[in-house]
Amino acid sequence: MRDMLPVVRKHHYVWAYYLSAWATEGDKNVWYATKKGNIRNDSVKGLSRENDFNKIHALSNDDVAYIELWPSGNFPGLQEFQKSQIEYFKKASALIDFHVGLEGLEGYAELKNVSEAVQFGIFERTHTAIEGLARPVIDELKRGNASCLEQGQYMTSFCNFLAQQLFRTKKVKDKCFEGMRLLPAGTPGVDTFKVLFERNWWFLSYRLGLNVGASLCSTAASDHHTFIRNNTGIDFITSDCPVVNIHDSAGNTVPGKPPEELDLYFPISPKMAYIISKDNRYDDLALSIDEQTVKVLNMQIVKDSHLNIYGVSREAIKDARRGYH
User: In the chain, what is the greatest distance between 2 CA atoms, to the nearest angstrom?
Assistant: First the structure.
């Protein structure tokens, strides 16, 4: 019998390596607030993680037709890439059910192992590849070197990573599923639409991330990119939604109304952060930032978090949760 393929079922929806920037020096533990309000200190390996979060299924013709109803971006190269990704996952996912009915074969365990390795691992590896491309950029930014983004490939990798991280969280998934379930049941086509949406969310979120990443790359020269060095006595915190839209329109309370613009804020470490905006309102933060502005940005992270916020100390978590009063 050949060696079995690893079946990875513990999937992070926030990159553990990213969270390690808030870890205690010498280990990989970070302070965090739980959903119930407790403050703990644990390894990043078990945080912002859910079993089978990136599990996929065999793509049927109906699934593919449904996916293709969704926007594929405005760039021919992006559209071709998305088509190739659909074909790639369709062919790979065909292996998921190929062991069914073959239980009596001597090598059935190996066949099932291949199936599970694909079902639980192939999309996880896609995100691992995106993270791998972004890692050199993140490392340079943590060291305070924003000039690395003058390299076109670094900017592309960074924008694609931010966009994927924006859409791949548990909060976005849960909120989208909640919204879909509010659609009236029994309406012709709605029930089928709901089923297809939930079955294919893994690819739809990836597709939305590809679209936004390509858009961020295409406008990088005209957008305002602000790299922030935090020399104050208050550290940046982060959360299980580390890329947040801080544009004023993101705070609207009208159901179903999308934000008018994206002002993406991304804390890189306790002392570094990044903002991408269409206007110059944040430009001065590249020169200096005061404690009050750090508090405002931290409160945006608290507001947009889902289950957890992360910081370098118990006090950092407590202060952010009570709004620094």
Answer: 69
Q: Tell me the pairing of strands 49-51 and 10-12.
A: antiparallel
**Which portions of the chain are predicted below pLDDT 50?**
none
Beta bridge mates, 264: 245, 276
CB-based contact 282:226 (threshold 8 Å)? yes
Give me the pLDDT at residue 24, please.
82
Asked if residue 42 lies in contact with residue 30, where contact means CB atoms within 8 angstroms, the answer is yes
Q: Count CA atoms closer than 13 A to 302's CA, side-chain side.
A: 19
Q: Which residues of 124-162 are buried (b: 16+ CB within 10 A; e: fewer)?
A: bebbeebbebbeebbebbeeeebebbeeeebbbbbbbbb
Tokens for 221, please give them.
């020269």
Model confidence pTM above 0.90: yes
- DSSP states along 39-68: EEEEEGGGSSEEETTT---PPPHHHHHHHT
Q: For residue 228, what are the β-bridge partners?
A: 273
Q: What is the SS3 assignment for 109?
A: helix
Contact yes or no for 238/300 (Cβ under 8 A): no
Distance CA 296, CA 305 (A): 14
96: nearest Cα among 57, 144, 152, 154:
57
Six-digit token string for 184? 């009236």
Residue pair 170/242 in contact by the 8 Å Cβ criterion: no
